[in-house]
Specification:
Elements: H1 3-16, E1 26-28, E2 35-42, E3 45-54, H2 67-80, H3 88-91, H4 95-107, E4 112-116, H5 119-133, E5 138-142, H6 147-156, E6 159-163, H7 168-176, E7 184-189, H8 201-210, E8 214-218, H9 233-236, E9 245-249, E10 259-263, H10 265-274, H11 276-279, H12 286-300, H13 302-324, E11 337-340, H14 344-358, E12 360-361, E13 364-365, E14 376-379, H15 387-403
Parallel strand pairs: 3-12, 5-6, 5-7, 7-8, 8-9
Antiparallel strand pairs: 1-2, 2-3, 4-10, 9-10, 11-14, 13-14
Helix pairs in contact: 2-12, 4-12, 5-6, 7-8, 14-15
The chain binds pyridoxal-5'-phosphate (PLP).
Length: about 400
């Protein structure tokens, strides 16, 4: 077999569909967020470097440049060095990880928490382990669940049924069809990051409870951003007590990197003792844990509450301004502001043009992240995006819509 030919043909097919992924070459600038420097390579010359405004970062609150986070990371780096030195099993647990796990457990009102190297790994490992090891387990999975949960469920080889997105009645019907005593896990998210809609967490959890199911909630796009202390939608809705496993990331609103689950001591210890994706990999470096710990503490405080209020205001303002400008903004209940394009090639063309002509960076979102025909731009305004940034964005979008004749039948 001509392996290289095969790879190149597959890549060419992605390009033809407009689905080939091109990563912008960016340099984030601490203290300047949402501004960043974009590198454009030039034949035989140094890169051209252009300042751009980032409109699609998942560093939702700009914590990746917060002075307390940076100071904590610098201090930990100087004091403890760079890496973790191995898996926790082999090298022990750095004390900062112990502190961070305590902080996260407390944030969610759970007995204990367990860190992983990313949110993806935490879902794949924790959900995979629970579904694989609970005897004859069946998983009820929301239709819009993230790839990392799907990966875990698939690895577990447990039976899986998909319930209609955010539909507690459909979940209830599917749960009722299972034998009463059977092990069941209901897996879902709170904020869905492509449509920006929010699950009825309390209703889904109540349905699960009625049928004796465990609840597994991915709060990746909510931790730090919802609830009085940043405990997510489950905190905001007073539903955290009804959730067995709350899963989150340290890589989005907390601005650093890593993932975790929080739950009862027995459940979390069971995952710790059985999950390959936890046991056999080097743990987070101490400086990362220190940064995350600082970020969680800032976002628990009054400063965090003020940032959350401003964050929501920015999102509502941007939605109103897009609608006013006649742009096809999709309804969203959260901080995520999607604008529908509906065609992969056009979505990519709009994004390229925004970046090249207007220095606005927003990534096209294409299949398989969203269904075909639902391709979109996904804006994530932060507390650091000013009114002037919005003026510039709206003017850029209007100009690109006009130039590329978006939405005008050919
Ligand atoms: C980003 C994401 C993850 C993975 O989190 P990382 O920390 O980035 O690995 C998990 N679930 C959802 C819903 C996500 O969007």
């Amino acid at each position: 077999m001509d392996y290289q030919r095969f790879f190149l043909d597959q890549l060419a097919a992605l390009r033809r569909e407009g689905r080939y992924r091109v990563f912008a070459d960016l340099e984030r600038q601490a203290g300047m967020f949402p501004r960043a420097l974009r590198h454009v390579p030039r034949e035989g010359q140094p890169d051209r470097v252009i300042e751009v405004t980032v409109w699609c970062s998942n560093d939702y609150l700009g914590m990746g440049q917060h002075p307390q986070v940076l100071a904590a990371m610098r201090a930990a780096l100087d004091r403890h060095g760079a890496g973790a030195g191995g898996t926790r099993n082999i090298s022990g647990t750095h004390h900062l990880l112990v502190e961070l796990e305590r902080e996260l457990a407390q944030l969610h009102g759970k007995e204990v928490a367990l860190l992983f190297t990313s949110g993806y790994v935490s879902n794949q490992a924790a959900l995979g382990t629970l579904a694989a090891r609970l005897p004859e387990c069946v998983v009820l999975s929301d239709a819009m669940n993230h790839a990392s949960m799907i990966h875990g469920i698939r690895d577990s080889r447990a039976e899986k049924h998909i319930f209609a997105h955010n539909d507690a009645a459909d979940l209830e019907r599917k749960l009722a069809a299972e034998p009463k005593g059977r092990a069941k896990i209901v897996a879902f998210e709170s904020v869905y990051s492509m449509d920006g809609d929010i699950a009825p967490v309390g209703e889904l959890a109540a349905a699960a409870r009625r049928h004796g199911a465990l609840t597994y909630l991915d709060e990746v796009h909510a931790v730090g951003m919802y609830g009085a202390h940043g405990g997510g939608v489950s905190e905001r809705d007073g539903a955290a007590g009804q959730i067995d496993v709350i899963e989150g990331t340290l890589g989005k609103a907390f601005g650093v990197m890593g993932g975790y689950i929080a739950g009862t001591a027995a459940l979390v210890d069971f995952v710790r003792s059985n999950a390959g994706g936890f046991i056999f990999t080097t743990s987070l470096p101490p400086a990362v844990a220190a940064g995350a710990l600082a970020a969680v503490r800032v976002l628990k405080s009054d400063e965090g509450r003020a940032m959350r209020a401003r964050h929501q205001e920015r999102a509502r303002t941007l939605m109103a301004r897009l609608a006013e400008a006649g742009l096809p903004v999709m309804p969203s209940q959260s901080h995520i502001v999607p604008v529908l394009v509906g065609d992969a090639a056009q979505c990519k063309a709009i994004s390229d043009r925004l970046l090249d002509a207007h220095h606005v960076y927003v990534q096209p979102i294409n299949y398989p992240t969203v269904p075909r025909g639902a391709e979109r731009l996904r804006f994530t305004p932060t507390p650091l995006h000013s009114d002037a940034d919005m003026d510039h964005l709206i003017q850029a979008l209007r100009s690109v819509w006009r130039d590329l004749k978006v939405g005008v039948a050919a």
